[in-house]
Amino acid sequence: MFKHLAASIRGVGHRTTEGIWQLGHATRFFLLVLLKSGTSFRRFGLVIRELYYVGVLSLIIIVVSGLFVGMVLGLQGYETLQKYGSESAVGTLVALSLVRELGPVVAALLFASRAGSAITAEIGLMKATEQLAAMGMMAVDPVARVVAPRFWAGVISMPFLAAIFSVMGVFGGYLVTVTFIGVDAGSFWSQMQSNVDFRIDILNGFIKSCFFGVAVTAIAVFEGYDSPPTAEGVSGATTRTVVTSSLVILGLDFILTAFMFRGI
Amino acid sequence: MTPEVLVEVSDLNFSYNTRPILKGINMTMKRGQVIAIMGGSGSGKTTLLRLIGGEVVPSSGYVKVSGQVVHQLDRDALFEIRRKMGMLFQFGALFTDLSVFDNVAFQMREHTDLPESMIRDLVLMKLHAVGLRGAHHLMPAELSGGMARRVALARSIALDPMLIMYDEPFTGLDPISLGVIGSLIRRMTDTLGMTSVIVTHDVQESLKIVDYVYFIADGVIAAHGTPAEVRDSVAPFVHQFVHGEVDGPVPFHYPAQSYRRDLNLEKALV
Q1: Which value does ipTM take for this structure?
Q2: Mind listing the pLDDT tens digit for each residue in B129-166?
Q3: Which fold has domain B5-233?
Q4: I need a surface site. Which of A102, A153, A197, B54 has the fewest CB within 10 A?
């Protein structure tokens, strides 16, 4: 009984120290990526190439999801607001929900699933097939040449994708409420214009998406670079990227919202 | 005149955590030679290549390449010396997102300021040397195993290195590709005056092209000599390895308790 208890406590201790070690390892790797980002800026073509794979190829899922989220928000918002005779405020509701929360958060979750997992799988497979080792043997630093351009491409793409998500969402809300339901277009846009503040709402949403971009891409490149060089290792790393990124996005969102909108 | 020693391995020890992999290895590799390192799986052959390339640090002893102790070099100096080395990985390790042409041009673009027109000519010359000039536009996924290794060979000689290391270059190749790769290694070494170090299991193919052979077993050099000496060797390990005998110093059976006990026959026989 005592032995069993001691083993359990040892197990918890081992997992805790392992987790702390891994966090430290990830932090060191993140700093290394920042340190070796010079190549990415000197040869910006490397980042632009990755922007296509990370950002442009994520556009379709962002545009379609944004449109549908906006349409659902419009429908739900209209259903609730009309009970109070405030259906003209539906534009404000859709816009505020999107620029403050859903735009950055849902776009980041989709980005983690689409681009984050792709980055992890690509770097992990490059490691498993010895491409990174080959690069190192050719005196080319794989962190500077492979990891850093992908990291910066992710960081740059994320705010743009979140903005596109919000724009498409507002358009989806407009389509449903104004075009199909018949809410007055003038009040839809004017209420939105008077109630959405650039600094408080739009800028804070933009800042959120920047944080999410850094978090998701840092997790993705670390998991890829740290993955065991086997099929199982790469698949596990890809799964961890999506799960960890999603949890970090939601946790970060709460912290950022608390600071931005409640003034903690 | 005695050829210049390019690689010197002296009293080299290496352990993964506490498990010793290499124990007191001594070797010399001269310019213009093709040297084979043979031994069973897990005997530390690839680790030796990684030590020569400075990918890992020895527990004690040293590897000198061109007079410089590799593990004492700082990062810049290590990268500088690696520019003079080439490495052919087991399955080529071609960059899958780049074409054959771009794979071979990779180092030239990274390390030189050569104009693109000159890079084009050089790449086509390197590819011509391995017989794949016509395949320059293909992607790695479109190549056979033998072709991929030939492209990797062209990539590894892109900057005319003084040393090339080959990790299992013959694995998984058909007899024609195997002969092609073998003769290319010999021809490149002679033409470019470089040193080639081959880690391999393929005794018959490698003995045709190498100048000297080292056998590693249990982390030590079990035997060494010229191909003729190796073929005629009566040392039990070398004999078993060269002739592919099933049992010998390297046993067929993994260590286990008594067969009778495993089958629960001891009590039955009492």
Answers
A1: 0.80
A2: 888 899 999 999 999 888 898 899 899 888 889 999 99
A3: Rossmann fold (3.40.50)
A4: A197
